[in-house]
Amino acid sequence: MSYAPRSRSARATGSYATIGLETEILGASPERLISLLFRGALTSVAQARLHLQAGNTAERGKALSKAIDIIDSGLKTGVDTERGGEVARLLVTSYDLIIRDLMLSNLHSDADRLAAAEKQLADLADAWYTAADPAFKQTPGS
């Protein structure tokens, strides 16, 4: 019996996952896109936590950079501060605080600061899912 090399199998799995995500994104409503951004940011923060525990500094930095980029370039820029008023401004401030905590947790290898940022982000995600995309919580990978 012969098996494909693990790297080929891993590439195939990664490609399949990428196609699945692309398909989900192309057919998604604006609300679902925000939900997907939250999922991506939370996944990256969870990966960073695992890398912090394992002492993998470079991988932790990559995961946190990805999370910060999703929050800053995706979630934060999607907030309409003109129409959203004070609530929108407070949401942007919350994102800024999360980003700051993620950066400081990386700089100082601070698990407590990382956990605080992860909790704040998870709380915002849960509020979003409840208010705008309740079906998302029941989808696989949530």
Description:
With 142 residues, the protein is mostly helical. It is 82% helix and 0% strand. It has helices spanning 6-26, 30-54, 57-76, 81-108, 111-132. α2 (30-54) packs antiparallel against α3 (57-76), α2 packs antiparallel against α5 and α4 packs antiparallel against α5 (111-132). The relative contact order is 0.12. The model is unreliable at 1-5 (pLDDT under 50).
Give a short summary of the structure:
Helices cover 82% and strands 0% of the residues. It is mainly alpha-helical and 142 residues long.
Number of DSSP strands?
A: 0
Tell me, rounded to a whole number, the average pLDDT. 87
* Category from helices, strands and their pairing: mainly alpha
What is the general shape? globular
Strand/helix succession = HHHHH
SS field, number of helical segments: 5
